[in-house]
Amino acid sequence: MNDTTTLESKASRKQIIIRLLYTLLYLIIFELLKLVVQVTVLFQFVYLLVTREYSQPLKNFSNKVSTYVYKIIRYMTLNDNERPFPLNDFPQEMEKPGEDVRF
């Protein structure tokens, strides 16, 4: 790209501020999701210690949450322009969870 970039191709200050406000919203959501992940991990290990097997529904839930967190981080770091959920559809799983847990 050359130095004679037209004004239309550059972002306006208003667009930048709007993006910043959305980013702040997603930063709050991200912080809440960190707590959700921590509780999920602790619960999964307690469940694993008691039953000696993992909870498949919890494993599926945590996989979806990790995909959502990934999308939020990509948006906040300006690596993606698509706004994540709740302003868009909830993301599909990027990959299925692993079958067996190994220790």
Low-confidence stretches: none
Shape label? elongated
**What is the alpha-carbon Rg in Å?**
19 Å
Order of helices and strands, N to C? Answer: HH
- Residue-averaged pLDDT: 86
What portion of the residues fall into strands of 2 or more residues?
Answer: under 5%
How is the main sheet built?
none
What is the tally of helical segments? 2
| Oligomeric state, counting identical vs distinct chains | single chain
Key traits:
mainly alpha, transmembrane, transmembrane helix, DUF4389 domain-containing protein, 103 residues, DUF4389, 58% helix, membrane
What do these coordinates show?
The protein has 103 residues and is mostly helical. It has a domain at 55-94. Helices cover 58% and strands 0% of the residues. The protein is built from two helices and no strands. It has helices spanning 13-51, 56-76. It is elongated and about 55 Å long.
